[in-house]
Amino acid sequence: MTAYVHDSTFFTRRTMVLFAIIALHVFIFWALATGLARKAIEVLAPPIQTEIVQEEVKQNQPPPPPPPQFEKPPVEVPPPDVTIDMPTEAPATNAITAVVQKSNQPAPPPRPAGPSSPPKPGKNFPNSDDFYPDASRRLNEEGMAVVHACVGANGKVTEAPTLAKSSGSPRIDGAAVKLAQAGSGRYQPALQDGKPVDACFDFGIRFKLRQ
Questions:
Q1: Are 151 and 200 in contact (CB under 8 A)?
Q2: Are 147 and 205 in contact (CB under 8 A)?
Q3: Which residues have a Cβ under 8 Å from the Cβ of 144 and sit 6 or more positions away?
C-alpha cells in the first residue's frame, strides 16, 4: 500500500495566491464603488478646461474733423474811370416853347368778366319725346327751336324761358319753351371762379321722329 505524503508548503502557497486574487477583486470593486478609479483617471488625464473670451466691443470713434476751408481773399477791383459829360448851355433864343399839358381823364372801368362756364342742361333733363306735340307726330313735323333761358345759382330758371329762334313750326316752338320750363332745377348753373352764379344762355331743342 502506497502512502501519499501531503506537502504543506504547496498548500500554503496556493492558499496565499487565492487570497491575493480575492483581495485584488475586492479592492477593484471597492475602488469602483468609491470613485477612486475616476479620481485616478482625472489625475492621469485632467479635464479639458474651456475659457470664454469676450470680444472687445469697439467703441464708435468720432468722425474725422472736416478739412479746413480756406477763404479766398477778396479781389479788389479798382473803380472804373467815370467821365461826366457836363451839359452845354443852349444859346438864349427868343423862341416860344409850347408846353402840351395832358388832361388827367379817368380810365374807363373794366368790363365785368363773364362766367367761365355757361349754364347748360344737367342730369335727368327732360326728353323732347315727352313733349312732342301729337299733331306734329301725325303731320311728321320735325325741327329744332332755340330757347333763351336764365338760370340761377341753384339750377332753377329765374324767369320764363322765351323763344330765341323758331323751328318753323309753332307747335314745335311751343313744345320747346315748355320743355325748357319743365327743366327748372335740372340745369347746371354757370361758374365764375369755381362758384355758381346767375346767367342766361341760348340752347337748341331738337324734335325728331323715331323710325
A1: yes
A2: yes
A3: 167, 204, 205, 206, 207
pLDDT in tens, 60-71: 667 777 776 766
Question: What does each C-alpha distance from 152 to 117, 124, 195, 200 come to in angstroms?
Answer: 13, 18, 12, 9
- Return d(Cα 154, Cα 160) in angstroms, integer: 16
Label residue 119 exposed, middle or buried (CB < 10 Å: 0-12, 13-18, 19+).
buried
Q: Which residues contact 208 (CB under 8 A, 6 or more apart)?
A: 128, 142
At 70-85, the pLDDT tens digits run: 666 665 655 544 444 4
pLDDT at residue 145 greater than cutoff 50: yes
- Predicted TM-score (pTM) above 0.85: no
Domain count within the chain:
1
Structural domain for 180, as ranges: 120-207
The closest of 155, 148, 147, 149 to 190, measured between CA atoms, is: 155
**What is the Cα gyration radius of the chain?**
63
Is residue 152 in some structural domain?
yes
Residue 94 has pLDDT above 80, yes or no: no
**In the numeric block, which cell numbers belong to residue 200?**
342766361
- Retrieve residue 191's grid coordinates: 361758374
Grid cell digits, residue 33: 464603488
Residue 195 in grid coordinates = 362758384
**Structural domain contains residue 62:** no
CATH of the domain at 144: 3.30.2420.10
